[in-house]
């Protein structure tokens, strides 16, 4: 074969590869999906949240909000460090309060991401686990919540080579948790290549002070994790596959695959209603708009609920959707007492009535 023929073959192969990748990416990102409006009654923007509340979790009517995330490739409209706020949903005025962090903790580089709250059955102490990215690194901070001072007492920082791109966590003890990695590589250029090449190399890591191990893998990206009320099943949001993975926790803490539930959207964090067991998901309805984050053509927001997820026929329902005119890039939704809190990656947060 002549040089020209080889060159032509190479160019044709490359063009075919790029074409196939573009089609795959359009599918992954749901880029042609039109954003609609499906509003809830009595919605209000939460005063004081301007730079994101990527994750929110509620314990007995008290919401914890992880705010001010700076994430590579996504907008960040403030140079200030991130903060954890509380919001008491039992109060009538619904005002956020910044939690003061006590102890030897570097507040200046605080960059909080996924959070999880854990109550110690032995003494009722409440712990807040926070994924933190100071200087772009990944680590998990454990705090004890001091309720009468509305403060967080810093306890310890956990770093481990397996905890390299942590997005979300679920605490299962005072020192143990499951965590999701949303990328395999730590190099920023290689990280960009992962979705382009459809690599499914992300995983779930189980941490205790005695052992750290990968307990599930094969995710294109794993952006949210939570646990069933009876602590028997873990749920992982497989954001680029538009699915929620359900896994059963075995006695040896390894996970066995149960099923995947289609959600038709790029869902991020998962909150679980402790009474009904329903899953509440903050989702990105159009991944291309989310990645571009153009203020003139903003990504929208979507909240999805899954009922009876362990049954033969889980019900997947869109509870809220917005084209970006109210809130941009929703990442979490959590209900309490007939209200729904919706947080976003880098913009506002919303509270609505559910009926
Ligand atoms: Ca979380
Ligand atoms: Ca997340």
From TrEMBL:
Key words, A-Z: Calcium, Disulfide bond, Glycoprotein, Hydrolase, Metal-binding, Signal
Catalyzed reactions per annotation: a phenyl acetate + H2O = a phenol + acetate + H(+)
UniProt cofactor note: Binds 2 calcium ions per subunit.
Keyword Cell inner membrane: no
Any Pfam family hit: Arylesterase
InterPro entries according to UniProt: 6-blade_b-propeller_TolB-like, Arylesterase, Serum_paraoxonase/arylesterase
Top-rank lineage group of the source organism: Eukaryota
Active-site residues per Swiss-Prot or TrEMBL entry: 113
EC code(s) of this entry: 3.1.1.2
Required cofactor(s): Ca(2+)
The keyword Cytoplasm belongs to this UniProt entry's keyword annotation: no
Binding site for Ca(2+) 1: 55, 115, 167-168, 223, 268-269
A GO term for molecular function: metal ion binding
Stretch forming the signal peptide: none
Binding positions (Ca(2+) 2): 54
Enzyme's top EC category: hydrolase
Family the UniProt entry places it in: Belongs to the paraoxonase family.
Listed name of the protein: Paraoxonase
